[in-house]
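Journal club side-thread
Mid-discussion, someone asked how the predicted structure for our own chain would compare to the paper's figures. Pasting it here so we can look after the session.
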Amino acid sequence: MIAEVKPLAEITQDAVRILYRELGVVDTVRFLMQFTKGYGNYTEERDELFAGQTLETLMAALKERRSVAQ
C-alpha cells in the first residue's frame, strides 16, 4: 500500500486545527511559540537601543514614565 503524501503546509494546518481543538487557543499558541526561532540579533539591537545609557538614566526614565502614567 502506498501512502498519500500531503504537502507540508496541509499537514501543518491539520496539526494546528487538532491542537486548537484539544488544547484551546492559549495553550496552542504557547506550544507553538516554543518552536519559533524569532528574528534579528538581540545583542546588536540591545546595544543600539541602549547605546550611551547607564542603569541610572534608564531607571530615571522608567520612574518618569510610571509617574506620567498614573
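Post-session note: Residues 7-39 form one domain.
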